[in-house]
Write a structure and sequence with these properties.
- By secondary structure, this protein is an alpha+beta fold.
- It has helices spanning about 55-70, 95-110, 120-125, 150-155, 225-230, 245-255, 265-280, 310-320; strands at about 45, 50, 85-90, 90-95, 115-120, 140-145, 160-165, 170-180, 185-190, 190-195, 200, 210-215, 235-240, 260, 285, 300-305.
- The strands form four sheets. Strands 5-6-7-8-9-10-11 form a seven-stranded mixed beta sheet, sandwiched between helices. Strands 13-12-14-16-15 form a five-stranded mixed beta sheet, sandwiched between helices. The chain has a two-stranded antiparallel ribbon with strand order 1-2.
- α1 packs antiparallel against α2 (about 95-110).
Length: about 325
């Protein structure tokens, strides 16, 4: 089963395993350690006060694949100039594929779970009040139809469709699909994570290795954010600008990179990936030593990492510069 837990002391939302864990002392804003995940395979999703046992998780995966097949992949490397629009500047792009895939997913996902709401990147851009659903009692699908739109526009296969199911601030399940790469990663709260049917495990970085850390891209950061992230330019750490946030989380879950350091908190960019990392055995936290809240209002930057010790190290450097 997949469960949603509330932190009992403050009411804050923690994206953590449902298995009881021993928190790390909050030195330097350290996060809680995550235990080894259970084997994937739960077919039902339960949340307090909400019966989701009838939800067909395979049908959700099929809906994600269908949206990509119908709306995204036919336009990959086929976009016309009029298919691409700037939202908030030359680096913040949206395409016809983003809009149509989100519409497709909105219809499909709400049909699978009647009474649910959708918080999608493009819907929020059009109407910021859509975000209010994250604070409500209805289950919420959090959707980024094309995460890595800039890569998509430039014909780079490093983009993904991200879908997460949340209830009262808790992420219950997530789907990270990179259609051009043939990768489908699924995480289920308390039931582990898998990539193309194979269990994922973050592992632990080699203590003598330089940490590979993906950070907020400099095109999307202000001067103060750049200053704080520059604290990672130190011995034993190799920071680099991130690509698709969803795929960076997948890289952590696969043990291919060691951590992220992000200075923005859009739920559609992070909800799916944070659950994926935690269910693969990783850890995360903010510079305030608090769990990341998908509803927003987080102390930034925050990190996700292969293990708690790596997360502690990254957060310590960021907190000292914050």
């Amino acid at each position: 089963m997949i469960e949603a837990l509330r932190t009992q002391d403050s009411g804050d939302t923690a994206i953590i395993s449902t298995t009881p864990i021993t928190p790390i002392a909050p030195e330097d804003g350290a996060p809680a350690a995550a235990p080894a995940p259970a084997a994937p395979g739960a077919a039902a999703v339960d949340a307090p006060g909400l019966d989701l046992s009838s939800l067909d998780l395979a049908a959700v995966e099929a809906a994600v694949r269908r949206a990509a097949a119908d709306e995204i992949m036919p336009r990959f490397r086929q976009l016309a100039a009029e298919d691409i629009v700037e939202k908030n500047g030359p680096h913040d792009l949206v395409t016809v594929a983003d809009r149509l895939a989100e519409e497709h997913l909105t219809a499909a996902l709400t049909a699978l779970l009647p009474g649910s709401r959708v918080v999608g990147e493009e819907a929020v851009h059009a109407d910021p009040t859509v975000l209010d659903a994250l604070h409500g009692d209805a289950p919420v699908w959090i959707v980024d139809p094309v995460d890595g739109t800039r890569q998509f526009v430039h014909g780079d296969p490093g983009f993904a469709t991200l879908v997460a199911l949340a209830h009262r601030g808790e992420v219950l399940a997530s789907w990270t699909y990179a259609p051009a790469l043939g990768l489908m990663a699924i995480a289920r709260r308390g039931a582990g994570a898998e990539l193309n049917g194979v269990p994922l495990h973050t592992g632990t970085p080699d203590p003598d290795a330089v940490l590979d850390v993906a950070t907020s891209h400099y095109d999307f950061t202000d001067d103060d954010q750049k200053r704080v992230l520059a604290a990672l330019e130190t011995g034993g750490i190799a920071p680099r600008p991130c690509g698709s946030a969803g795929l960076e989380y997948l890289h952590i879950a696969r043990g291919e990179i060691d951590a992220t350091a992000f200075s923005w908190e859009n739920a559609w960019d992070h909800a799916a990936g944070l659950l994926l990392v935690h269910e693969a055995g990783g850890a995360s936290g903010t510079v305030a030593g608090q769990p990341f809240r998908i509803e927003g209002g987080n102390a930034l930057p925050f990190t996700a990492a292969r293990d708690a010790e790596t997360a502690r190290r990254i957060l310590g450097l960021l907190a000292a510069a914050n």
